[in-house]
Amino acid sequence: MNVLVYGFGLMGKKVAHAVRQHEKMNLVGVVSPIFDEDVQEGMYSSLSECHQKVDAVIDFSHPNNLDDLLKFGIKNHCALIIATTGYNQQQLLRIEEASSQIPIFQSYNTSFGISMLTKIVKEVAKEFYENGYDIEIIEKHHNQKIDAPSGTAKLLYDVIEEDIQEVKPVYDRSEVHHKREKQEIGIQSVRAGTIFGEHTVLFAGHDEVIELNHMALSKEVFVQGALSACLAMQDKDNGLYTLKNLY
Length: 247
What we know:
Layout: E1 2-6, H1 10-21, E2 26-31, E3 43-44, E4 56-59, H2 66-76, E5 79-82, H3 89-98, E6 103-106, H4 112-130, E7 134-141, H5 151-163, E8 168-170, E9 184-191, E10 197-205, E11 208-216, H6 220-232, E12 239-241
């Protein structure tokens, strides 16, 4: 499988190294406007410079690169594994539109463990809710993370909302001067230290609490998750895939 890596920051470097070591993958090269170290397979300042056969692009770059990425994917009819964060609603719609022509995996979190957590949450959330349990989502990340809540926290909420349409998210209770309503799902963000990423879905009932928790201990889980997603996309038809429907 010929793989092109887009982006050469911390994650891009880790992904390029992992692809290079993978027995089922061949690293075609890396696309980045700046290189602080050499890449023996190929160094491209833009996607238009790469003319090799590419089966998939793993993207850990920047939202501003989306249009070029989609054009390249459609032109070369290759799969796109989009792990870049920070897209606005219009950009997400463009990704969805492009997925009618090529297979695209888009997720703010590539961890396989998170994909399993979403499956568990989908399986149990409605039953907990219907039996009087309150549901809360707590996410924790390092103090350098800019956005809040995390894309993964939003994903977990979306999974719950799909089965319980009446729920609504509550992000800040400081201006809320009434008791918690049943349909509310609180989404809380913690920014501290060097936490890689921790997500908890809490079900609180009468005199008992159940927590489903995922903790990333290093960025390596996201690297391996991106490679797993890449391999899983090999036989996929055109369409938009996420952690909810890829595996």
